[in-house]
Design goal:
Length: 573
Amino acid sequence: MANFFSDNKDLQFHLQHPMMRKIVELKERGFAEKDLYDHAPQNFEDAMDSYRRVLEIAGEVCGEVIAPNAEGVDHEGPRVVDDHVEYASGTVENMKAIVDAGLSGLTLPRKYDGLNFPLVCFVMANEMVARADAGFENIWGLQDCAETLNEFASEEIKQKFLPWVSAGATCAMDLTEPDAGSDLGAVMLKATWSEERQTWLLNGVKRFITNGDGEVSLVLARTEEGTTDARGLSMLVYDKRDGGVKVRRIENKMGIKGSPTCELVFTNAPAQLVGDRKMGLIKYVMSLMNAARLGIGAQSVGLCEAAYREAFKYACEREQFGKPIVRFAAVSEMLTVMKAKLEGARALLYETTRFVEIYKQYTHISHERQLEGEERQEMKFYNRLADGFTPLVKLFSSEYANQLAYDAIQIHGGSGFMKDYPCERLYRDARIMNIYEGTSQLQVVAAINAVTKGTFMEQIGRYAAGDYCAEMQPVVERLKALTAKFAEMVDRVETLDKQAPGFKDLHARRLVETAGHIIVTYLLARQTGECADYGRSARVFCNLAEGKIAEAHACVMGSEAGDVALYRVDTAE
């Protein structure tokens, strides 16, 4: 039987990371619920055993149900029936399997019928689902909307919605509008308080909404009349059972066809306010988006895993000139680099997840009691890392998903262009990953502060100060030289930006990617000390990093202030 957890030693490795002990202690509040719930863990070992068992169940569902349904779902897709979404038959089967397996509400507290698992487990499940079918991951993975409710909503709202999500209710986040894409401050969907009905009423249109007909929807809407910017926006939660929302159409997309991307019309749709008015974009959507970006990271890594496996399998089976093509140097090199990128992206994904997890747990604890001084410092520390690493992992993993999907087709040759093999679907599915939840360009904008404020450089310093096995010592020395080049680039950009405003923006991507290449290589080098299997990928990725950083360094150090104008598009042309 196919099992996407049992067959992936890399996932099992990351589940055993030393920081899991701290994460579990924080999540379980010192195992305070061990006597309140039969399924609550008694200790760390008991918790880890539960995680493994559930992840194995998730892996089986992915391998035995979701993956076999993927091609059929891609072909059939969802449709609009009576103003609502009707899923493809395979999607319905997938949802039933997920619910029957108890895989909803994975991270939610037990008092809301959740499993109270760490975010690491949810991200792993997301990755496995995406490996099986990236489109279905968009439906299942949106249950992380419930975490926003758990963090910011009133107890009344939590009691109403969270057990429903734990029972399998689908979710959506309704942010984008026809005239407000990435610029969410321009959102104009109107929320008006009704004295008669004692509720907020939503009116307007949303577009490009993933799983837009979900049962529980978080909606960004304008509650403050007369405003046109972010200060007039609030977050509300909408219950599909209350009516008032129609699906105008499902977008006809290039890929992830099983995921309904909807245009929605709101007509006096009742909704409840989440948290405080005017904080919808400033506070709640930022939290929601960061969670979504981590989800896209998991989705991207899952697709990388699928693309690599398809390419490797085909290369071992396909013979040309009397031998399998995997024995040709050109193909072997491609596969080796693909694996290094896959393992590198996964290392970055779970490092980021651990940072986010610890920050989030301290946030939840702060709502229960006053944090100790050391705890407050830790929360600030991990918040800073989470803010820098989240756009970084979204940038790297989504770009690698596209690269590995491309390479998988290339290794298949002409066969890869046909629908006979899954890699054609993977290629189409991958293309959205470096677009939605913020394009790669926007991830650079989000991450550049971590360069200029020293967050990345400080963390690189911590990695450099770690202990590494003898095999990795040459890699560490090379990384120190690359870090020196990075420092030179940062210094030059900051100096010239004062003379020519916009110089930093011109080279932002080079700086962010340089930091990322160094960080990923350090992570793989660290992993090699725990498992020698990562040694090859660490060395290969270091070679890749040296080439990329050499190019970026030459460009930045050779760039002059006048280049700002040189690369500015003349709109008069």
